[in-house]
Amino acid sequence: MAEISPPSFSSLGLRERKKAMTRQAIVETAKRLFEERGFSQVTVAEISDSANVSVKTLFTYFDSKDDLLFEDEKKLCHSILEGIRNRKSGESPFDATKIILWNLIHSINPEAILESLEGFHKCMETPELSSRLLSLWEKYEKELATLLAEETESDPTDPLPKIVAVQLISIFRLLGSSELKAYLEPIPPAMRQRALEKWLGRSLELIGGGIKNFALKQKET
After folding, report:
1. Engineering a disulfide at 219: which of 25, 89, 108, 209 sits with its beta carbon 3.0 to 4.6 angstroms away?
2. Is 132 found in the same domain as 53?
3. Closest by CA position to 23, among listed 59, 66, 49, 70
């Protein structure tokens, strides 16, 4: 998955900045250890020791080692929900998703696309971890479906909000997939950025044909 930029600390108070910096340091340390040795070979104690914090401090920020592994995915999912929730008048969830996706792929270093897309996924060495990641994406699909159902005042039995949510989230899921990596890998490095843009454009074209006007946000009166 594409790298999620570290948070901006400039607007936070001193205490909040310190907490945000500690959290980020723990994540970066865990990421490095997972990539070097594999997720299952790294303990929470080793992460906390390398990050110069206590195990107790680590658990004030994260509930489990899994949370560290999937921190980038959680940040991305949160940004998707917020971007759709706060979209401009006249925009649909599809429009908001397009903006998020294009911003995301253009934040990737063109010379390191495969590495950026892979993200934590090089650590997915067991079926259990893949299953947990799938559960995470499904959780956010449900949250997005709930948001869309509330906005459109849909009947609880109406499948449309869930269908739209699944389609929108599917592109983000594929950005971190082994399938997309396999598609891009044979392409010369200098041409991968353009290939990724074409892949995304085609994906949006296919999905947008059916849902681009769903839940257009009305102007506030």
Report:
1. 89
2. no
3. 59
Closest of 110, 11, 129, 111 to residue 65, by C-alpha: 129
The most distant pair of C-alpha atoms in the chain lies apart, rounded to whole Å, by 56
The domain boundary, picked from 52, 68, 84, lies at 68
Phi/psi region, residue 6 (left: phi>0; alpha: psi -120 to 50; beta: rest), is beta
Q: Which two tokens stand for residue 104?
A: 């995301």
CATH number of the domain residue 130 falls in = 1.10.357
pLDDT recorded at residue 12:
62
Domain that holds residue 54: 14-68
Predicted local confidence at residue 162, as pLDDT = 95
- pLDDT tens, residue by residue, 3-62: 444 445 556 678 888 999 999 999 999 989 988 888 889 999 999 999 999 999 999 999
Are the beta carbons of 1 and 80 closer than 8 angstroms? Answer: no
Does 45 lie in the same domain as 26?
A: yes
Residue 221 has pLDDT above 70, yes or no: no
Domain boundary among 45, 68, 91: 68
- Coil, strand or helix at 176: coil
Question: Within this chain, do residues 26 and 119 fall inside the same structural domain, yes or no?
Answer: no
Q: In this predicted model, what pLDDT tens digit does every residue of 169-208 receive, in sequence order?
A: 999 988 878 788 889 999 999 999 999 999 999 999 988 8
Question: Which string of DSSP letters, residue by residue, matches 199-210?
Answer: HHHHHHHHHHHH
Whole-Å CA distances, 213 to 96, 114, 186, 200: 12, 33, 36, 19
